[in-house]
Design a protein that fits this description.
Blueprint: H1 2-11, E1 19-23, E2 29-32, E3 41-43, E4 76-81, E5 86-89, E6 95-102, E7 110-115, E8 118-119, E9 128-131, E10 137-146, E11 152-155, E12 159-164, H2 168-174
Parallel strand pairs: 5-12
Antiparallel strand pairs: 1-2, 1-3, 4-6, 6-9, 7-8, 7-10, 10-11, 10-12
């Protein structure tokens, strides 16, 4: 038993150590790390199976970058007036656009109205946009919400709107310049003035 313990200790020794064995005078097998003259023999040792520890990777450099604040999101943004596909009749091409959002406009945010994809009014906190001189025809309305840096937070889809601008000629067809209202309507030219009715009794005075 002692011989096996000695072998285990010698095997656990560094790989550079050598082990020798011989039989002493009493006939016992002896293992030692010291060479003994005579019948001592070197014991071959198996190579060590120890593995070198992996190199520790260098610590990743950390930069103190400020955390980006998540952007505020609105649950709803839409145009109230005019309604989608509405027809607006105005001689001067005037229209009032009203928008709403849920929740309400946040501090530092602004509404911006777009007509046919182009901003048509300065961004501001008011949800009402009075517009004038809008060309006749079909147009696309949309509204955006901008943050403090001018970045778009929300935007609606394009909403069609039709502008009908009645010309003076069309107005005359609807209501001609009658004698009783002639002079009250500046669009009535002299050539269109109705003839005055003649009173037969006037010739006797």
């Amino acid at each position: 038993m002692k011989a096996w313990l000695l072998i285990a200790c010698l095997l656990a020794a560094p790989a550079s150590a050598e082990v020798f064995t011989y039989v002493d005078a009493q006939g016992n097998r002896v293992f030692t790390d010291q060479p003994k003259p005579g019948n001592a023999k070197r014991v071959p040792l198996a190579p060590s199976n120890r593995m070198s520890a992996p190199a520790t990777p260098p610590a990743l450099a950390t930069t103190n970058k400020p955390e980006k604040k998540p952007q505020f999101r609105y649950d709803m943004l839409r145009i109230l007036v005019p309604e989608p596909d509405a027809t607006v009749r105005s001689t001067a091409g005037e229209i009032i656009v009203s928008v709403t959002s849920e929740p309400g406009l946040q501090r530092g945010h602004r509404y911006r109205l777009l007509l046919d994809g182009q901003p048509i009014a300065e961004p501001g906190p008011s949800p009402v946009f009075p517009l004038t001189d809008i060309d006749r025809g079909t147009h696309q309305l949309s509204v955006e919400i901008l943050d403090e840096q001018g970045q778009i937070v929300e935007r609606t889809a394009n909403q069609p709107m039709h502008m009908l601008r009645m010309s003076l000629a069309q107005k005359r067809k609807v209501k001609p310049c009658a004698l009783d209202d002639y002079g009250q309507r500046p669009e009535c030219p002299l050539r269109d003035k109705p003839a005055e009715e003649k009173n037969l009794l006037q010739r006797f005075f």
